[in-house]
Structure to design on (168 residues):
């Protein structure tokens, strides 16, 4: 499992863009993780699935609500990563009103989750291999803090916890 001090693994996530700009076309666009995090501070949180109860009611809204506070603490971008396809993440972004606040990034094949060692096997619940629920602060490609939830928990990966770490 990835730990504090490790470099985030090279991988590609997908992002659905609603508008054309910054070299991105409308629709699915690849995000090269290594290039996207270079020289930046990223507040990344991951969760088991889009449109799931805790993720939709608490996890994403907390980061959307505190976006300005994260910026004030020196965070360049907030990323939400989930093992879903890019179209689902795009629809969820619209539903959660994340535009300009949280980048909703799809890890469709769970490659990123596997590379970090932060997978969650929900096959018995009909969801297959997913990402564990966690948050991490990344500074210029390296993990500065990592908060991994226990099974079924939502206690340490919330926006308030990661924001306090970003301010420290």
């Amino acid at each position: 499992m990835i730990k504090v001090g490790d470099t985030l693994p090279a991988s590609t996530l997908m992002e659905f863009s609603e508008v054309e700009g910054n070299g991105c076309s409308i629709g699915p666009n690849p995000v090269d993780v290594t290039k996207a995090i270079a020289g930046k501070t990223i507040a990344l949180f991951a969760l088991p699935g889009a449109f799931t109860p805790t993720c939709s009611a608490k996890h994403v809204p907390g980061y959307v609500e505190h976006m300005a506070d994260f910026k004030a603490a020196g965070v360049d971008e907030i990323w939400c990563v989930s093992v879903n396809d890019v179209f689902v993440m795009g629809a969820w972004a619209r539903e959660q009103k994340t535009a300009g606040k949280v980048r909703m990034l799809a890890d469709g094949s769970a490659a990123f989750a596997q590379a970090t060692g932060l997978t969650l096997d929900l096959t018995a619940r009909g969801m297959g291999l997913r990402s564990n629920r966690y948050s991490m602060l990344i500074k210029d490609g390296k993990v500065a803090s990592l908060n991994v939830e226990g099974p079924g928990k939502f206690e340490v990966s919330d926006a308030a916890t990661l924001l306090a770490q970003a301010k420290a």
Remarks:
- Strands lie at 12-17, 27-32, 41-47, 77-82, 103-106, 119-122, 128-131, 134-139, 142-148.
- The chain has a mean pLDDT of 93.
- The chain has one domain: 12-167.
